[in-house]
Amino acid sequence: MTDATGSRDLLAVSGLGKSFTHRSGTSTPAVGDISFTMADGEFIAVVGPSGCGKTTLLRCLAGLLAPDRGTLHYAGKPVDGVPEGLSVVFQEYNRSLLPWLTVRQNVEFGLSALPKSERAARATAALERVRLADVMQHAPWQLSGGMQQRVAVARAIATRPRLLLMDEPFASVDAQTRIALEAMTASISAELGLATLLITHDIDEAIFLADRVLVLSARPSEIVADITVELPRPREEVEVKATAAYQRYRRQVHGLIVGDAVDAGTAVR
Ligand SMILES: Nc1ncnc2c1ncn2[C@@H]1O[C@H](COP(=O)(O)OP(=O)(O)OP(=O)(O)O)[C@@H](O)[C@H]1O
Ligand SMILES: [Mg+2]
Asked: What's the total number of domains in the chain?
Protein backbone atom coordinates (compact mmCIF):
# COMPACT_ATOMS: atom_id res chain seq x y z
CA MET A 1 0.00 0.00 0.00
CA THR A 2 1.31 3.45 -0.83
CA ASP A 3 0.31 6.80 0.64
CA ALA A 4 -0.14 10.20 -0.98
CA THR A 5 3.60 10.69 -1.41
CA GLY A 6 4.09 7.25 -2.94
CA SER A 7 6.06 6.06 0.08
CA ARG A 8 5.51 2.52 1.35
CA ASP A 9 6.82 3.27 4.82
CA LEU A 10 4.59 3.98 7.78
CA LEU A 11 7.54 5.43 9.65
CA ALA A 12 10.75 6.74 8.10
CA VAL A 13 13.52 7.87 10.42
CA SER A 14 16.72 9.30 9.00
CA GLY A 15 19.78 10.54 10.89
CA LEU A 16 17.75 11.24 14.03
CA GLY A 17 19.69 12.64 16.99
CA LYS A 18 18.83 14.27 20.30
CA SER A 19 20.98 15.78 23.04
CA PHE A 20 19.92 17.38 26.30
CA THR A 21 21.53 20.63 27.37
CA HIS A 22 21.71 21.21 31.10
CA ARG A 23 21.54 24.50 32.99
CA SER A 24 25.27 24.18 33.70
CA GLY A 25 25.85 24.37 29.94
CA THR A 26 26.97 20.75 29.63
CA SER A 27 25.23 18.52 27.14
CA THR A 28 24.16 14.85 27.27
CA PRO A 29 24.00 13.23 23.87
CA ALA A 30 21.18 10.65 24.19
CA VAL A 31 20.22 9.52 20.68
CA GLY A 32 23.26 9.61 18.41
CA ASP A 33 22.29 8.79 14.84
CA ILE A 34 19.28 6.57 14.17
CA SER A 35 17.90 5.64 10.75
CA PHE A 36 15.31 2.98 9.93
CA THR A 37 11.98 2.49 8.23
CA MET A 38 8.94 0.62 9.43
CA ALA A 39 6.17 -0.87 7.30
CA ASP A 40 2.45 -0.91 8.11
CA GLY A 41 1.59 -3.83 10.38
CA GLU A 42 5.20 -4.58 11.25
CA PHE A 43 6.31 -5.43 14.81
CA ILE A 44 9.69 -3.94 15.69
CA ALA A 45 11.43 -4.37 19.03
CA VAL A 46 14.16 -1.92 20.01
CA VAL A 47 16.65 -3.22 22.56
CA GLY A 48 19.59 -1.45 24.07
CA PRO A 49 21.49 -0.98 27.30
CA SER A 50 20.07 1.01 30.17
CA GLY A 51 20.19 4.75 29.59
CA CYS A 52 21.12 4.49 25.90
CA GLY A 53 18.31 6.82 24.81
CA LYS A 54 15.41 4.43 24.13
CA THR A 55 12.76 6.55 25.84
CA THR A 56 14.16 9.66 24.20
CA LEU A 57 13.92 7.95 20.80
CA LEU A 58 10.32 6.91 21.48
CA ARG A 59 9.35 10.42 22.57
CA CYS A 60 10.82 11.78 19.33
CA LEU A 61 8.97 9.16 17.24
CA ALA A 62 5.72 10.02 19.05
CA GLY A 63 6.12 13.71 18.25
CA LEU A 64 6.42 14.58 21.95
CA LEU A 65 10.02 15.76 21.71
CA ALA A 66 11.67 17.58 18.81
CA PRO A 67 14.90 15.93 17.64
CA ASP A 68 17.99 18.10 17.13
CA ARG A 69 19.00 16.40 13.94
CA GLY A 70 17.55 14.23 11.21
CA THR A 71 14.15 13.75 9.63
CA LEU A 72 11.09 11.85 10.75
CA HIS A 73 8.07 10.99 8.61
CA TYR A 74 4.86 9.23 9.61
CA ALA A 75 2.62 8.06 6.76
CA GLY A 76 4.64 10.21 4.40
CA LYS A 77 4.26 13.44 6.40
CA PRO A 78 6.89 15.16 8.58
CA VAL A 79 6.19 14.69 12.29
CA ASP A 80 5.62 17.96 14.17
CA GLY A 81 3.40 16.91 17.08
CA VAL A 82 1.68 13.65 17.94
CA PRO A 83 0.39 12.30 14.60
CA GLU A 84 -3.18 11.05 14.25
CA GLY A 85 -3.31 7.28 14.38
CA LEU A 86 -0.40 6.95 16.79
CA SER A 87 -0.81 5.71 20.37
CA VAL A 88 1.73 5.33 23.14
CA VAL A 89 1.99 3.07 26.18
CA PHE A 90 4.51 4.62 28.56
CA GLN A 91 7.16 3.02 30.74
CA GLU A 92 5.53 4.11 34.01
CA TYR A 93 1.89 3.08 33.97
CA ASN A 94 1.34 4.33 37.52
CA ARG A 95 2.05 7.84 36.32
CA SER A 96 0.14 7.59 33.03
CA LEU A 97 -3.28 6.62 34.44
CA LEU A 98 -5.34 9.32 36.11
CA PRO A 99 -6.08 8.18 39.69
CA TRP A 100 -9.26 10.25 40.12
CA LEU A 101 -10.93 8.61 37.11
CA THR A 102 -12.31 5.07 36.92
CA VAL A 103 -10.74 2.50 34.63
CA ARG A 104 -13.50 3.12 32.06
CA GLN A 105 -13.08 6.91 32.28
CA ASN A 106 -9.32 6.53 31.80
CA VAL A 107 -9.91 4.59 28.59
CA GLU A 108 -12.55 7.07 27.39
CA PHE A 109 -10.26 10.00 28.19
CA GLY A 110 -8.47 9.86 24.83
CA LEU A 111 -11.75 9.60 22.90
CA SER A 112 -13.22 12.98 23.82
CA ALA A 113 -13.76 13.93 20.19
CA LEU A 114 -16.26 11.09 19.74
CA PRO A 115 -19.96 11.03 20.67
CA LYS A 116 -20.70 9.62 24.14
CA SER A 117 -22.21 6.33 22.92
CA GLU A 118 -19.25 5.67 20.60
CA ARG A 119 -16.82 6.46 23.42
CA ALA A 120 -18.57 3.99 25.69
CA ALA A 121 -18.69 1.27 23.03
CA ARG A 122 -15.02 1.66 22.18
CA ALA A 123 -13.94 1.64 25.83
CA THR A 124 -15.98 -1.48 26.54
CA ALA A 125 -14.54 -3.29 23.52
CA ALA A 126 -10.97 -2.31 24.41
CA LEU A 127 -11.37 -3.34 28.05
CA GLU A 128 -12.93 -6.64 27.02
CA ARG A 129 -9.99 -7.17 24.67
CA VAL A 130 -7.55 -6.91 27.60
CA ARG A 131 -9.92 -8.96 29.81
CA LEU A 132 -10.72 -6.16 32.25
CA ALA A 133 -14.46 -5.81 31.62
CA ASP A 134 -15.19 -6.73 35.24
CA VAL A 135 -13.19 -3.85 36.78
CA MET A 136 -14.33 -0.97 34.58
CA GLN A 137 -15.77 0.96 37.52
CA HIS A 138 -12.72 0.51 39.75
CA ALA A 139 -10.06 3.16 40.29
CA PRO A 140 -6.69 2.31 38.68
CA TRP A 141 -4.96 2.20 42.06
CA GLN A 142 -7.25 -0.63 43.15
CA LEU A 143 -5.68 -2.84 40.47
CA SER A 144 -2.42 -4.80 40.36
CA GLY A 145 0.50 -3.48 38.32
CA GLY A 146 -0.17 -5.90 35.46
CA MET A 147 -3.83 -4.93 35.38
CA GLN A 148 -2.96 -1.22 35.34
CA GLN A 149 -0.70 -1.79 32.38
CA ARG A 150 -3.58 -3.59 30.62
CA VAL A 151 -5.70 -0.48 31.21
CA ALA A 152 -2.95 1.56 29.54
CA VAL A 153 -2.98 -0.88 26.60
CA ALA A 154 -6.80 -0.65 26.40
CA ARG A 155 -6.60 3.14 26.38
CA ALA A 156 -4.02 3.01 23.59
CA ILE A 157 -5.99 0.62 21.35
CA ALA A 158 -9.38 2.28 21.97
CA THR A 159 -8.30 5.12 19.64
CA ARG A 160 -7.87 2.49 16.88
CA PRO A 161 -4.29 3.43 16.12
CA ARG A 162 -2.29 2.42 13.08
CA LEU A 163 0.97 2.58 15.04
CA LEU A 164 1.40 1.63 18.68
CA LEU A 165 4.57 2.72 20.50
CA MET A 166 5.32 0.91 23.77
CA ASP A 167 8.11 1.89 26.16
CA GLU A 168 9.16 -1.06 28.33
CA PRO A 169 5.49 -1.67 29.09
CA PHE A 170 6.02 -4.80 31.17
CA ALA A 171 9.29 -3.99 32.92
CA SER A 172 7.81 -3.62 36.39
CA VAL A 173 5.51 -6.65 36.54
CA ASP A 174 6.40 -10.16 37.74
CA ALA A 175 7.71 -12.77 35.30
CA GLN A 176 4.47 -14.76 35.02
CA THR A 177 2.35 -11.65 34.39
CA ARG A 178 4.90 -10.49 31.91
CA ILE A 179 4.61 -13.65 29.83
CA ALA A 180 0.82 -13.30 29.78
CA LEU A 181 1.07 -9.63 28.77
CA GLU A 182 3.54 -10.46 26.00
CA ALA A 183 1.18 -13.07 24.57
CA MET A 184 -1.69 -10.58 24.79
CA THR A 185 0.37 -7.93 22.97
CA ALA A 186 1.26 -10.38 20.19
CA SER A 187 -2.37 -11.32 19.59
CA ILE A 188 -3.69 -7.73 19.78
CA SER A 189 -1.11 -6.49 17.27
CA ALA A 190 -1.87 -9.38 14.92
CA GLU A 191 -5.66 -9.14 15.20
CA LEU A 192 -5.79 -5.37 14.78
CA GLY A 193 -3.08 -5.34 12.09
CA LEU A 194 -1.22 -2.79 14.22
CA ALA A 195 2.28 -1.63 13.49
CA THR A 196 3.95 -1.94 16.88
CA LEU A 197 7.27 -0.55 18.06
CA LEU A 198 8.20 -1.96 21.44
CA ILE A 199 11.12 -0.64 23.46
CA THR A 200 12.53 -3.19 25.85
CA HIS A 201 15.77 -4.23 27.43
CA ASP A 202 14.55 -7.80 27.64
CA ILE A 203 16.13 -9.82 24.83
CA ASP A 204 13.62 -12.69 25.12
CA GLU A 205 10.66 -10.34 24.92
CA ALA A 206 12.14 -8.69 21.83
CA ILE A 207 12.75 -11.91 19.91
CA PHE A 208 9.49 -13.57 20.96
CA LEU A 209 7.37 -10.62 19.82
CA ALA A 210 9.13 -8.97 16.92
CA ASP A 211 9.43 -9.29 13.16
CA ARG A 212 12.60 -7.22 13.46
CA VAL A 213 14.88 -6.43 16.39
CA LEU A 214 16.85 -3.19 16.29
CA VAL A 215 19.83 -3.39 18.62
CA LEU A 216 21.07 -0.04 19.92
CA SER A 217 24.55 0.80 21.15
CA ALA A 218 25.25 2.55 24.43
CA ARG A 219 24.69 6.31 24.54
CA PRO A 220 24.73 8.21 22.19
CA SER A 221 22.80 5.40 20.56
CA GLU A 222 23.14 4.12 17.04
CA ILE A 223 21.65 0.99 15.50
CA VAL A 224 24.30 -1.72 15.66
CA ALA A 225 22.10 -4.44 14.13
CA ASP A 226 18.73 -4.77 12.40
CA ILE A 227 17.81 -8.44 12.74
CA THR A 228 14.85 -10.03 10.95
CA VAL A 229 13.29 -12.68 13.19
CA GLU A 230 12.12 -15.48 10.93
CA LEU A 231 10.21 -17.50 13.49
CA PRO A 232 6.77 -18.68 12.29
CA ARG A 233 3.61 -17.12 13.76
CA PRO A 234 1.55 -17.51 15.80
CA ARG A 235 4.32 -18.09 18.35
CA GLU A 236 3.75 -20.06 21.49
CA GLU A 237 6.20 -18.92 24.17
CA VAL A 238 7.41 -22.28 25.52
CA GLU A 239 7.56 -23.94 22.09
CA VAL A 240 9.31 -21.12 20.29
CA LYS A 241 11.91 -20.60 23.02
CA ALA A 242 12.91 -24.27 22.80
CA THR A 243 13.88 -24.04 19.12
CA ALA A 244 17.48 -23.86 17.91
CA ALA A 245 16.60 -20.86 15.73
CA TYR A 246 15.35 -18.93 18.76
CA GLN A 247 18.51 -19.72 20.70
CA ARG A 248 20.64 -18.51 17.79
CA TYR A 249 18.79 -15.15 17.71
CA ARG A 250 19.16 -14.91 21.47
CA ARG A 251 22.91 -15.50 21.37
CA GLN A 252 23.29 -13.00 18.53
CA VAL A 253 21.39 -10.18 20.28
CA HIS A 254 22.95 -10.96 23.65
CA GLY A 255 26.45 -10.83 22.15
CA LEU A 256 25.76 -7.45 20.53
CA ILE A 257 24.15 -5.85 23.54
CA VAL A 258 26.30 -7.21 26.34
CA GLY A 259 29.52 -6.56 24.44
CA ASP A 260 28.44 -2.96 24.06
CA ALA A 261 27.26 -2.59 27.65
CA VAL A 262 30.57 -3.92 28.95
CA ASP A 263 32.41 -1.38 26.80
CA ALA A 264 30.27 1.42 28.19
CA GLY A 265 30.29 0.20 31.77
CA THR A 266 26.48 -0.19 31.92
CA ALA A 267 24.51 -3.27 32.85
CA VAL A 268 21.90 -5.15 30.86
CA ARG A 269 19.72 -8.04 31.78
N1 LIG B 1 14.56 15.51 29.96
C2 LIG B 1 15.85 15.21 30.08
N3 LIG B 1 16.74 16.15 30.45
C4 LIG B 1 18.04 15.86 30.55
N5 LIG B 1 18.59 14.65 30.29
C6 LIG B 1 17.76 13.67 29.92
C7 LIG B 1 16.32 13.88 29.80
N8 LIG B 1 15.76 12.71 29.40
C9 LIG B 1 16.75 11.81 29.29
N10 LIG B 1 17.95 12.38 29.59
C11 LIG B 1 19.25 11.70 29.57
O12 LIG B 1 19.39 11.10 28.29
C13 LIG B 1 19.98 9.80 28.41
C14 LIG B 1 19.03 8.76 27.80
O15 LIG B 1 17.85 8.68 28.59
P16 LIG B 1 16.64 7.75 28.21
O17 LIG B 1 15.63 7.86 29.28
O18 LIG B 1 16.20 8.06 26.82
O19 LIG B 1 17.33 6.30 28.21
P20 LIG B 1 16.67 4.84 28.22
O21 LIG B 1 17.44 4.02 27.25
O22 LIG B 1 15.20 4.96 28.01
O23 LIG B 1 16.97 4.36 29.71
P24 LIG B 1 16.25 3.18 30.56
O25 LIG B 1 16.81 1.92 30.01
O26 LIG B 1 16.71 3.45 31.95
O27 LIG B 1 14.78 3.33 30.38
C28 LIG B 1 20.25 9.59 29.89
O29 LIG B 1 21.59 9.91 30.13
C30 LIG B 1 19.32 10.57 30.56
O31 LIG B 1 19.84 11.01 31.80
MG1 LIG C 1 13.55 4.36 29.16
From this structure: 1
